[in-house]
Amino acid sequence: MSTLTVTTANVNGLRAATGKGYVEWLAATKADVVCLQEVRAEPAQLAEHVREPEGWHVLWAPSVAKGRAGVAVLSRTEPQDRRIGFGSTEFDATGRYAEIDLPGLTVASLYLPSGEVGTPRQEEKERFQVEFLDHLKALRERAAAGGREVLVCGDWNIAHHEADLKNWKSNKKNSGFLPEERAWMTRVIDEAGYVDTVRRLHPDVDGPYSWWSYRGRAFDNDSGWRIDYQMATPALAEKATSAVVERAATHPERWSDHAPVTVTFAL
């Protein structure tokens, strides 16, 4: 039986992560596909061994806003097709979404906007959610018609349930855990028909968290958020055999404020 291993990782600035251990992590990973978010660099600004890592085919989707956002998809198998954006006039050039087609599977990297209550950033996040939910529905329908599965990986910037963040009681009025944001995540599952693969394999635990603030002792106390998801079409989700957050052993070993989230599927 063959397997497919996919990792999603918000790198919090790829140039900075490169000097902290990202390159060594990529060289050691057993993943077949790696989805990156918050790259915050144009490909030309990256060292060649980062821009074109040996053994990988890379789709870069930088933002027109310098130093912001940016996603990428790395695949050991050459993609059959590549797409940047999801048909949005407002968001396609903002470095928030890219997808590749592999045999029988579409894999996407998503960096959903982070918001701030009462500011234009939250309004931007809400506009993105409206458009993106429509895309998720259409993507699944197209895939089903073509006998394909879909896996949308990335930083969704929303903790869906109380079990998805340590201090949920104090965050009920903060972006990332607002009732309307959580309801939107439920719609991704109930209306668009996707499955949270990590939660499916870890149904009755707090976390596993994937982001910890650099402030205070959040990492040491495991006071984190689970906002990095791998959302799969149901038939693919059923084939997920393991889901692991690659949490650094110590604070100094972190190369991002997020940890890679890796899921393996038995195909």
General description of the model:
The chain has 7 helices and 12 strands. The chain has a single domain, classed as Deoxyribonuclease I, Chain A. The protein has 267 residues and is an alpha+beta fold. Strands 3-4-2-1-12-11 form a 6-stranded mixed sheet. Helix 4 (120-145) links the parallel strand 7 (105-111) and strand 8. The model has no long low-confidence stretch (mean pLDDT 97).
Keywords:
single chain, alpha+beta, Deoxyribonuclease I, Chain A, six-stranded mixed beta sheet, 7 helices, 12 strands, 24% helix
Please give the count of helices.
7
Overall 3D form: globular
Distance between the termini: 7 Å
How much of the polypeptide forms β-strand, as a percent range? 15-25%
Note the run of SSEs as H and E. Answer: EHHEHEEEEEHEHEHEHEE
CATH 2nd-level architecture? 4-Layer Sandwich
* Domain count: 1
CA gyration radius, whole angstroms? 17 Å
Outline the low-pLDDT stretches. Answer: none
Mean pLDDT score? 97
Give me the side-by-side strand order of the main sheet.
3-4-2-1-12-11
* Major sheet: 6 strands, mixed
- Oligomeric grouping of the chains: single chain
| Number of β-strand runs | 12
Structural class: alpha+beta
The CATH superfamily bears the name Endonuclease/exonuclease/phosphatase
Helix content: 10-25%
What fold name stands as the CATH topology? Answer: Deoxyribonuclease I, Chain A
